[in-house]
Write a structure and sequence with these properties.
The structure holds two protein chains of two kinds.
Chain A (H helix, E strand, L loop, with lengths): L3 E4 L2 E4 L5 E7 L5 E8 L3 E10 L2 E4 L7 E3 L5 E6 L8 E8 L6 E2 L3 E5 L1
Chain B lengths: L2 E3 L4 E5 L4 E3 L2 E3 L5 E7 L5 E7 L5 E3 L5 E5 L4 E6 L8 E8 L6 E3 L3 E6 L1
The chains are: A mainly beta, B mainly beta.
């Protein structure tokens, strides 16, 4: 039982490049979330999903897209990376109305 | 909209001393409240949570927190801090919609020997 895993752990991009971050959970959770963490700002919600095939915007969705084609996976895409997207990205999952469990994070540096 | 305030950005305590980390929230309905801990370079680990019932909740690693509705607070406490408690601590409130979390900006705890 791995819990929540994230791929990759670290990535460097050039401005304008695209990439996809993968989150996988093996707890059969309905809900999944993507957050970004920046110094002095805590974690902010980017997008979330309440079930397979559904997604919704969070607090800071601009510049990101997501997809949830399978219940266990939640993908975060950056179509054209910008330096402002340099951050640490965390994925989380939960059962309905329950505690969120977090992955180990992905560090992204956009040059 | 809900919000969480952690007024202390950085706290330093001596090993063996008591600890209290402050958290105030703003939310119109009955809140679900959480404390998470993050060690350097790691993800977030749940310390404890309050959903309902007893307002004093016990968590892992000897931590506890008390929900005070009249003060809109959910302060985290530990009677005797260990050097391994040095980390960043986040308070969060969950809304009723999709259990989304709103986090405070965190309190970094330093423990001196």
């Amino acid at each position: 039982n791995a819990g929540v895993t994230q791929t990759p752990k670290f990535r460097v991009l050039k401005t304008g490049q695209s990439m996809t971050l993968l989150c996988a959970q093996d707890m059969n959770h309905e809900y999944m979330y993507w957050y970004r963490q920046d110094p002095g700002m805590g974690l902010r919600l980017i997008h979330y999903s309440v079930g397979e095939g559904t997604t919704a915007k969070g607090e800071v969705p601009d510049g990101y897209n997501v997809s949830r084609l399978k219940k266990q996976n939640f993908l975060l895409g950056l179509e054209s990376a910008a330096p402002s997207q340099t951050s640490v990205y965390f994925c989380a999952s939960s059962s309905r109305g329950e505690t969120q469990y977090f992955g180990p994070g992905t560090r992204l540096l956009v040059l | 909209a809900q919000s969480v305030t952690q007024p202390d950005i950085h706290i330093t305590v001596s090993e063996g001393a008591s600890l209290e980390l402050r958290c105030n929230y703003s939310y119109g309905a009955t809140p679900y409240l959480f404390w998470y801990v993050q060690s350097p370079g790691q993800g977030l680990q749940l310390l404890l949570k309050y959903f309902s019932g007893d307002t004093l909740v016990q968590g892992i690693k000897g931590f506890e927190a008390e929900f005070k509705r009249s003060q809109s607070s959910f302060n985290l406490r530990k009677p005797s801090v260990h050097w391994s408690d040095a980390a960043e601590y986040f308070c969060a409130v969950s809304t009723g919609t999709a259990s989304k979390l709103t986090f405070g900006t965190g309190t970094r705890l330093q423990v001196t020997l």
